[in-house]
Design goal:
The chain has one domain. Helix content is about 25%, strand content about 30%. The protein is built from 5 helices and 17 strands. It has a 5-stranded mixed sheet, with helices on one face. The protein has a 4-stranded mixed sheet with strand order 9-13-14-16, covered by helices on one side. It has a two-stranded parallel ribbon with strand order 2-15. α1 packs parallel to α3.
């Protein structure tokens, strides 16, 4: 790779919902307090055609037109097209589930809790626009790429290992499993590897993307906002390496959670 062929502009901004805001689409109690703020962490990659934007958001989900609105907003700020913007949700449950289309239906019905407060959503877009613009003022050259992996022990487990002889699921482990019998069953099929792709400017690591496949919940349902195990681990690495932007992406984990190793 030729020196300075690529450049990387890291950004981050706060996406913590206000007190009283819906969590998990209203399935669990609304925000009563915040133990750990939520973030959007990302970067703009320059030098490979139109800019590419990649980010991970500490929200449960960004759906339909809300997902498109984020991509369009960040694309405009970066001077690129929305199809060159990837917005990923880490999928914590003590966090907003955002769907503008659902919110329109809820508002029209009347008497129901908002799924997303539109002023908060718009404020997050404003912060994102400003964060990307500020990042583009000081991009770093990318001279090297690195990748690696490490096996993760006793975090993820297959949710549906308890089956009869015909393969019918008799019970499942979720993010926690109070049932000792279910916790005692085998770990089951998972991807045990945490993988990392890192970007370097000379000898300086400037960004690291981490990927692991599990539902990222240890606990939720009490109205206390937090970034949970994945977010706390990311923030620990960020504190250890303050000059490197750390991003975490949840892998293919629809049937994978921490239930075997978490009694709740």
């Amino acid at each position: 790779m030729a020196e300075a062929e690529l450049q990387l502009a890291p950004f981050r901004f706060d996406v913590t919902p206000p007190l009283g805001h819906s969590i998990c689409g209203g399935w669990i109690p609304s925000v009563a307090s915040v133990s750990d703020p939520l973030e959007c962490v990302g970067f703009v990659l320059l030098g490979a055609g139109k800019p590419i934007v990649i980010c991970a958001v500490d929200w449960l989900a960004l759906l339909n037109s809300a997902h498109l609105a984020w991509r369009q907003t960040l694309a405009e700020a970066a001077g690129t097209h929305a199809d060159r913007v990837a917005v990923h949700c880490v999928h914590q449950h003590s966090a907003p589930l955002v769907c503008l289309d659902t919110q329109a239906i809820v508002a029209a019905a009347g008497g129901l809790e908002d799924v997303i407060q539109l002023d908060f959503f718009d404020d997050c877009l404003r912060r994102g626009r400003e964060a990307v613009a500020a990042a583009l003022a000081a991009p770093r050259p990318v001279t090297k790429l690195a990748h690696g992996q490490a096996k993760v022990d006793k975090v993820a487990s297959n949710r549906r290992v308890y089956r009869d002889d015909n393969g019918i699921v008799l019970g499942q482990r979720a993010s926690s499993a109070p049932d000792e019998f279910l916790r005692g069953l085998p770990e089951g099929l998972i991807d045990p590897w945490l993988k990392t792709v890192a970007f370097y400017d000379g000898d300086d690591k400037i960004a690291a993307c981490h990927y692991y496949a599990t539902h990222p919940q240890s606990y939720y349902g009490d109205g206390i906002v937090n970034s949970d195990t994945a977010g706390l681990a990311r923030k620990r690495r960020q504190a250890e390496e303050p000059d490197c932007l750390h991003l975490y992406f949840t892998g293919c984990a629809g049937n994978v959670a921490a239930g075997k190793y978490n009694d709740g």
